[in-house]
C-alpha cells in the first residue's frame, strides 16, 4: 500500500521578516472608560523587546479658528491616507507639541483711535529727543499749550524781577554807606577821596550833581510794554520791526539765556509817547507771531 507523504514546506526568510515586523506594530483599542490605549513593542539598549503602554483620554474642546483653517480640516484625505477616518493616523503620522500662535492685529479697532495713539507716541518721542520745556511752568509741553499761560507769570520773569529787586537794594545800601562815610570825613576834616556821583550829599543832599548815577533817578515806565510768549528764535531787530510802525521807540530789551544766547520768551519795548504804546498794545496783544500768540501789557513799576 502506497502512502503519499507531502514534503515539509521550507519557510521563506521574507515570511520571518514580516512576522518580526508585525510583532512591533502598535496595537490601538479603547477601554470601558473611553480611554484610548496604545500598546507598542520596542527594543531597548540591551537589544531586548519591551512593551510600552500609553493611555490617552480624549477631551472635546471647542475653539474658534480662522475660516481657512476650519475649511482645511474638512478636506478629504488623498494618497495612501485615502478612505481613512478623519484625524491623524498614528501609523503614518507623528503628533508633535501643540504650539498656539496668536497674531497681533488692529482688526476690529477704530482706525481713528489707532492713528491718534500713534500720533501721541510720536509727539512724546519728539519731546524726549528735543527736551521741550514750557517757559511758563517748565513742563514738558509747548508754551502755547500751557494751562497756566493766562494766570501765571513765567518763571524767568519772576527770577529776573527778584534779581532786579536784590540789585536795587544792594545799590541803595552801598549808596547810603558811602554817603555816611562822606559825611563823617567832612565833619572830621579828612582829605579822603569822594567819588563825583557822591559829592554834595554829605551836606544834607542838597541838589543832585550832573554825574549822579542813572539808576538813582526813578525811570518812567509808563510807556513801556512787556511782550511775552515769544519764540526762542526772535531777535532785537524782529521786535523793533514789529513795534516801530506804531511810533518812535526809545529802547528794546530782549531777555536772553546766558548759555544758549536764545530768547527767554519775553521782552520790554519802551516808547517816547504813551499814546504810541497804547496803540501798539491794542494792536499786538493776541497777535499771532512765529506760530505763537503774543501777550502784550504795560510793564508794572517795581
- Based on CA inertia axes, which overall geometry fits? rod-shaped
Alpha-beta content class = alpha+beta
* Low-confidence regions: 206-212
Helix/strand order:
HEEEHHHEHEEHEEE
- Sheet-strand content, in percent, reads 15-25%
Beginning-to-end CA distance, first to last residue: 153 Å
* Structure annotation, total helices: 6
Chain-averaged pLDDT: 75
Cα Rg: 49 Å
The neighbouring-strand order within the major sheet is 5-6-4-9
Biggest beta sheet summary? 4 strands, antiparallel
Number of strands: 9
- Percent in helix: 25-40%
Topology of helices and strands:
Layout: H1 13-22, E1 27-30, E2 36-43, E3 49-56, H2 67-73, H3 111-130, H4 155-188, E4 224-228, H5 236-243, E5 249-256, E6 263-271, H6 274-284, E7 288-289, E8 292-293, E9 295-298
Antiparallel strand pairs: 1-2, 2-3, 4-6, 4-9, 5-6, 7-8
